[in-house]
Amino acid sequence: MKRAFVERARQIGFDTVRIAAPDSIPLAPERLQAWLAAGHHASMDWMAETADRRADPRALWPEVRSIVLLGVNYGPSGDPLAALSKKDHGSISIYARNRDYHDVIKGKLKEIAGFLAARASSDVKVFVDTAPVMEKPLAEAAGLGFQGKHTVIVSREFGNWLFLGAIFTTAELPTDEPERNHCGSCRRCLDVCPTDAFPAPFQLDARRCISYLTIEHRDHIPEDLRPGIGNRIFGCDDCLAVCPWNKFAQVGREAKLMQRDDLAALPLAELARLDDPAFRTRFSGTPMKRTGRDRFIRNVLIAIGNSGDAALADEAVRLLDDASPLVRAMAVWAVGRLLPGGAVASLGARRLEREDDAAVRAEWSRALPVKKEVA
After folding, report:
1. Which of 215, 239, 272 marks a domain boundary?
2. Residue 227: in which H helix or E strand, if any?
3. Partner of 237 for a Cys bridge, out of 12, 17, 80, 324, CB 3.0 to 4.6 A?
4. Is the pLDDT of residue 375 over 50?
């Protein structure tokens, strides 16, 4: 049964399949509580609200007897960090340079779960990052890979480039051996982080993580973290890309997950001009649609401010009058980084008086040149 299931899963498009028992992550509750207690989940309140079900698969579904972990390889064909050197362009994380993986993998999971349910006469539930399931500890317990010091699953076959999905089933299936950690003394993933998001190996503080800040975070990004973001406008691949295990990674073979060349590096000037309808059209079907136009333009303006390119200042100036305070605030920050003090003062004089948003006013206060007292 298991052999037929694995073979069918590979035919559907999964690159790796392993099975774990529901009780295979006994340390998860304690580690999750410590992470939450430290506030490392940032504004992701659902992590705390679902902690009990997240830490124990049987709390999520008492009838589960086996958990199938499946991976789809999305390994890039080129250097994932190449776009970082193009300061007038925005860099987008590898995973987002294609169709939204939730849409692609969920259909595959439902198909293979149906196959399992029929063959094993069992009930099944499928999950793709949409329920309180700790996919990474379960994937390690199933032998699919190991959690690196950056907390991401590392596969000895596919490096750092695996999308994960899970099938909970009432069928009793033979489990696989867990994978042991192979990081050794290496700490490249920790040292490369531009915002120091790892307080210790195997610990991630989302409050400082560029992926969290540019995708999940709905508010203004703290000023001290903005320079480290560089031109990363959606996600960050640095810690994944420098892992030595990527030397064994293979280019993703699934056509629906092939990276789109037009999303590798996007001109910041072009992106800054997107209104809401244009944003929705431009990124339809991709993960970028999740952020919405305002948060995305917030990210674009941070990249513009970090570009050092005065030619982009006009785009930031135009957005000083945007309807969104989230956008206006970052436009102020970008203008303050790119234009001389006199120009900033002139722009602020026309706007600060009528600005009613406290955060935007605070950005103006920091951006405006300090007036020297006359003796």
Report:
1. 272
2. helix 226-229
3. 80
4. no
